[in-house]
Write a structure and sequence with these properties.
Elements: H1 3-38, E1 50-54, E2 60-66, E3 72-77, E4 91-96
Antiparallel strand pairs: 1-2, 2-3, 3-4
Length: 101
C-alpha cells in the first residue's frame, strides 16, 4: 500500500463518517419531535345526556344520567337482571338532589 491508497481510504472513511453523523442527527430530531408531540396536553371534554356501562354481553350494568328536573342518578344493575320477590329489579340507584343551604 502506498500513501495514495491510504489517503483515498481515509477520505472515504471521513465521508462515510460525516454521512453517519448527519443520519444520526436526523433520527434524533425525528425521535424528539415524536416524543414531544406525544406529550402535548389536550383539554378534551366529553359531553352526553347519559352514560351507559355495558358488560361483554351488551347488557346495561350501570347508568349515569340527569333527569328533566336536574336530578343526577347513578344506577348499578347486577349481572342477572332478575327481579326479587317484591317485583323490583336487583339494582341500586343513587339520586342526588340539590340541597338549599
Amino acid at each position: 500500500m502506498d500513501i495514495q491508497d491510504v489517503s483515498a481510504r481515509l477520505e472515504r472513511l471521513e465521508t462515510e463518517n460525516r454521512r453517519m453523523k448527519k443520519l444520526g442527527l436526523v433520527v434524533l430530531i425525528f425521535a424528539s419531535v415524536f416524543f414531544v408531540s406525544g406529550q402535548a396536553k389536550t383539554n378534551k371534554v366529553v359531553e352526553a345526556n347519559e352514560f351507559r356501562l355495558l358488560d361483554i354481553d351488551g347488557r346495561i350494568r350501570a347508568k349515569l344520567m340527569t333527569n328533566d328536573i336536574g336530578q343526577t342518578s347513578l344506577t348499578l344493575t347486577d349481572s342477572t337482571d332478575s327481579t326479587n320477590d317484591a317485583g323490583l329489579g336487583k339494582e341500586v340507584e343513587l339520586v342526588c338532589c340539590p340541597v338549599n343551604s
